[in-house]
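dude i think i finally got it to work??
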Amino acid sequence: MLKFRAFDANDRTLVQSYTYKTTYRNCDLAFANMFVWRFLYDTQIAEADGFLFVKYWFHSKPFYMLPLGDGDLGGAIMKIVAFAAENDQRFCMQGLTLEMKEAIERCLPNRFAFTTNNEYSDYIYLREDLAGLVGKKYQPKRNHINQFKRTYPDYRFVPLSTELIPQCMELVSHWKSVNQDEKDKSYIALESESNAIHRAFDNYKELDLQGGALIVDNRVVAFTYGSPINNTVFDVAVEKADATYTGAYAMINNEFAKTIPEQYQFINREEDLGIEGLRKAKLSYHPYEILDKYTAKML
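look at this
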């Protein structure tokens, strides 16, 4: 039987020894994401027969990610099926890209029903597009950036250091107060995101996060951070800005993209969660791909 266990930041190298061997681009595979959201999903890991297994809970229901490793994928999936049956639990895998779905269907044909929800699709961009903003389609972004530079000529973009974290958390509190509505379900999402950011900052060095901050008059007006998913895909997990500084979002986006090493051809800016404003903002950067993710249940 699989033996799932809790994990901590010290397991980063172990988990990445599996995730870095893949070409999958979904944000769920970024170790930092697994770790900082563990408080909400009770995420656990297990190893067996050369595969990494990930289990988590959502709305009191168990879910599994696709096993990662070399060898018999079908056998690894059936280990999860057996584990679920032995524990009198349902079997359900989530976060499956089309590439993952096709791999499952090749080794275990006609065994699963697949569904998808575009609220959880990832937005994938070319790093060179976000760093260069070349061409007519990016003219509005360049206009925002130029307006920011004219208005705040003494701005600075700096690497996100631990010394800046208190100011970043002040910005998170401000951003949450502006955007939250306690009568709306988004309030819970904002609270959870704030907790996740706290966990990321508390373990910033251990998670090997990379970030940047935009400073005006010695005040952090925008910040962002992320981490690699694998050797070619970088995940931007968080981006926050004080919207009263016109152009701050476009500015932090572009400045940070320029610092991401060229080995990362793709940038994953995660889901829109069905929020219309967020969807429009992500589409305005002209994604290379909208990465649908599937859920698999036994037929």
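The longest strand covers residues 219-228.
im so relieved honestly
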